[in-house]
Amino acid sequence: MEIKTVGVVGAGTMGHGIAQVFAAHGFDVRLADTSDAAVGRGLAGIESSLERLLAKEKITAADKTSTLGRIGATTDLATLAGAELVVEAVTENLVVKTELLQTLDRVCGPETILASNTSSISLTRLAAATGRPDRVIGMHFMNPVPLMELVEIIRALQTAEETYRRIHDLALRLGKTPVSVRDSPGFVSNRVLMPMINEAIFALHEGLATAEDIDTVMKLGMHHPMGPLALADLIGLDTCLSILEVLQDGFGDPKYRPCPLLRQMVDAGYLGRKTGRGFYRYD
Ligand SMILES: CC(=O)CC(=O)SCCNC(=O)CCNC(=O)[C@H](O)C(C)(C)COP(=O)(O)OP(=O)(O)OC[C@H]1O[C@@H](n2cnc3c(N)ncnc32)[C@H](O)[C@@H]1OP(=O)(O)O
Ligand SMILES: NC(=O)C1=CN([C@@H]2O[C@H](COP(=O)(O)OP(=O)(O)OC[C@H]3O[C@@H](n4cnc5c(N)ncnc54)[C@H](OP(=O)(O)O)[C@@H]3O)[C@@H](O)[C@H]2O)C=CC1
């Protein structure tokens, strides 16, 4: 069955970018979240991202209009029933994702592929929660989705070769570069990235330097496009904490222990860009 309609569940930092990229490549998209407010924020994010691309002359005004025209918003998961693919991009939490996948499993047709954008959680466990484990796969986009080229593709132990091939080809159609990674906590991207971000937070916690100076070291010293603390704010500090917990639990290795400052920031609701305050302020 050719993939024409794509459901995206979760209209947050990643979900709205994923919806945008599918729509920009001609797919009909249904973007779902739990409330009208969350869906509205997602649509506003898409509008502003397309506006930036237009200002940079990467797209035309007609591209912007047609992309927006292909996105429908909903709070009712039943409206995803006809989608050939659903990508979930909800909160990085095993229970939340498991319950959602079970609902999607009930609602969607038997052939629908259920892809997860999880940053770290075992695809094998997520697949096992459904009645279609052979059609569950990890499709891990990077943030910001419209700008980043990589998609990590993670096969659960149960994923069928056919499912993998279709998602691999789909990533290419979206103009992305797919990389296949075995199912293991944090895959490759966050196995490597999160310890660096965590270490930068420890450096701040221990008073080695200011947040700005820590980021400057990595930007000017290592040519990273963003410093690790600014990047943590872009990702979301709650998401960074959840990923580190999955790494720590999964490997049982104290080297992944989240910095106490990260926990405190999350407890305070300083989650980064999405709440207007993290290691920096975004007014
Ligand atoms: C956690 C996980 O599981 C996996 C992950 O995704 S880890 C995160 C991976 N991503 C990265 O490492 C990103 C590193 N940063 C970069 O590569 C670059 O800074 C960047 C591509 C994000 C922006 O580069 P740029 O286009 O030269 O910058 P610029 O035009 O000045 O825009 C920067 C800004 O727009 C965002 N942005 C730019 N264009 C955008 C678009 N079309 N849509 C959405 N956001 C956009 C940037 O985040 C940033 O926000 P502010 O202006 O509000 O500060
Ligand atoms: N941020 C990043 O840089 C990256 C994140 N990811 C992964 O993408 C996923 C989403 O992360 P991100 O976009 O950052 O998170 P956000 O917190 O920005 O957005 C999550 C969205 O999911 C919604 N949501 C939660 N539960 C449900 C549900 N049961 N049904 C529908 N919607 C729901 C939330 O709504 P509400 O607020 O109302 O709860 C919120 O709008 C996570 O798995 C994360 O690990 C992957 C790559 C990069």
UniProtKB/TrEMBL annotation:
The keyword Signal does not apply. GO terms for molecular function: NAD+ binding; oxidoreductase activity, acting on the CH-OH group of donors, NAD or NADP as acceptor. It holds the Pfam family 3HCDH_N. NAD(+) binds at residues 10-15, 33, 92, 97, 119, 143, 274. It comes from the Bacteria. CoA binds at residues 49, 56, 119. Residues 5-183 form the 3-hydroxyacyl-CoA dehydrogenase NAD binding domain. The keyword Oxidoreductase applies. The record marks 140 as: Important for catalytic activity. Residues 186-282 form the 3-hydroxyacyl-CoA dehydrogenase C-terminal domain. GO terms for biological process: fatty acid metabolic process. Signal peptide: none annotated. NCBIfam families: PRK05808.1, PRK07819.1. This is 3-hydroxyacyl-CoA dehydrogenase. The lineage of its organism: Bacteria, Pseudomonadati, Pseudomonadota, Gammaproteobacteria, Chromatiales.
